[in-house]
Design brief:
single chain; 442 residues; alpha/beta; Rossmann fold; 2 domains; seven-stranded parallel beta sheet; 14 strands; binds adenosine monophosphate
Length: 442
């Protein structure tokens, strides 16, 4: 299968060739022709599946096939005196849950649309308004936005949505998880009903299904199973830990693996990400934290250091790490297990990028076996239980009652990193660690 069988304009196919895309991915094969036909789509697909091209290529084709209309008069009648009298509307609107993902989509759009005279505006929270306002003060074609910031702009009258022809909801499940439902409904209410809506989500069940029903019309459902091909490129392992101190020793051994070039280490909370990052830094690792409480400038700076190879480890929370696409990431380490199977898929998708192989290691408490099985069922891929010689977990019967009774998960907002630095430091024995890492066996 090649891209020129999907109905795409030859200029777009030629661009894809320059980007090294040889053949379309399953989501692209299914979604591109349907989107080009103008159908509303509800697509279940995972991170790393190539979904950005699946919605952006048909959108670009639409823009290329008809000229950009002039500015709209939206906002003039009701605008407050100090508001701009003319607001421009994009023709394509992409809503994404996080800044990182939105910036990633914008970057991909620039790649797919290279050579075309298209203007994009990225309207995301945590960034100054000035540049965003400047970008939307002239006609533009594509807005890529997080719901909260877009709603702000709409309320200020700085842009209109009355010329939107294609609405994309990217990672709709995550937007709902993050509490954007009301903002999404507000935004959708400003877009003409005669639009095409493309909704992408890891799952189409539950609240996402309800949202899909509200925003799409006769939507065609496309289910792309969690990508066997993609996850097959990622070796998935689990290491059981008796307690927190054991976990830190396991992490220590993993980080000494000579095969580890760059790693993303996931924690359950922002505080835990900070604590673990500081602890690893004090041990001499080139490491940084990435979480939602950081200013956008800090987040960008951290991600750039990772991309440039100046940072070996990133300690991140789920939300902050979405959309990270750094080919050098060889390992994903779940220091805290993900809360749900979908988060697991998003996490491990940070490695094995750009056709490379990756290793995903999940550190689990004994009482998280059920979670592991849920993940295996969800992905359809087995996770191999591994041990590191000298750091095997105690047989379950040996565990003291207090540990066996420990709750499975911390309450939200409490720190996973309590005492991390001290505990990690007192147990570290570099030479033994190196030996252990070398003999890490599945
Ligand atoms: P996405 O799921 O859109 O975030 O894409 C994941 C990664 O796959 C990105 O690095 C894309 O540039 C890349 N990609 C998407 N489609 C293809 C394709 N057909 N061939 C090769 N790489 C692709």
């Amino acid at each position: 299968m090649s891209f020129d069988t999907l109905g795409l304009d030859p200029s777009l196919v030629a661009t894809l060739a320059t980007l090294g895309y040889e053949s379309p991915s399953p989501v692209q094969i299914a979604a591109i022709p349907a989107a080009l036909a103008g159908t509303d789509l509800l697509v279940s697909s995972q991170t790393g599946s190539g979904k950005t091209a699946a919605f952006m290529l048909p959108a670009l084709q639409r823009l290329l096939s008809s000229p950009r209309p002039g500015p709209t008069e939206a906002g003039t009648a009701q605008a407050a005196p100090m508001r701009r009298s003319r607001a421009f509307s994009p023709r394509v609107l992409v809503l994404a849950p996080t800044r990182e993902l939105a910036l990633q989509v914008q970057k991909a759009t620039h790649g797919y649309g290279q050579g075309q005279r298209l203007r994009t505006a990225c309207l995301v929270g945590g960034m100054p308004y000035g540049l965003q306002l400047k970008n939307i003060s002239r006609p533009f074609d594509i807005a890529i936005a997080t719901p909260g910031r877009l709603k702000d702009h709409l309320e200020r009258g700085s842009l209109a949505l009355d010329r939107v022809e294609i609405l994309v909801l990217d990672e709709a499940d995550r937007m709902l998880d993050m509490g954007f439902q009301e903002d999404i409904d507000f935004i959708v209410g400003k877009i003409p009903a005669a639009r095409q809506t493309l909704l992408f989500s890891a799952t189409l069940d539950g609240v996402v299904g309800k949202l899909a029903l509200r925003v799409t019309r006769n939507g065609q459902r496309i289910d792309i199973a969690p990508e066997v091909k993609h996850t097959a490129k990622i070796e998935q392992r689990a290491l059981f830990a008796d307690n927190f101190a054991h976990k830190t020793r396991l992490l220590d051994a993993l980080l000494r693996d000579v095969e580890l070039r760059q790693a993303v280490i996931f924690t359950a909370t922002k505080r835990a990400a900070e604590d673990l990052s500081e602890s690893l830094q004090s041990q001499g690792y080139a490491v940084g934290a990435l979480h939602g409480d950081m200013r956008q400038r800090e987040r960008n700076f951290t991600l750039q250091r990772l991309r440039d190879g100046n940072m070996r480890m990133l300690v991140a929370t789920d939300v902050a790490a979405r959309g990270i696409d750094v080919p050098g990431i060889t390992h994903v380490i779940n220091f805290d297990a993900p809360r749900q199977a979908e988060d697991y898929v998003h996490r491990i998708g940070r490695t094995g990028r750009a056709g490379r192989t990756g290793i995903a290691v999940t550190l689990l408490n004994q009482d998280e076996r059920g979670l592991m099985r849920t993940i295996e069922r969800y992905t359809g891929n087995p996770i191999e239980v591994a041990t590191i010689p000298g750091l095997e977990p105690r047989p379950r019967t040996e565990r003291p009652r207090t540990e066996a009774r420990r709750p499975a998960a911390r309450k939200p907002g409490t720190s996973a990193g309590f005492g991390y630095e001290r505990r990690a430091a007192e147990k570290r024995t570099p030479a033994r660690g190196a030996e252990r890492a070398a003999s890490f066996r599945r």
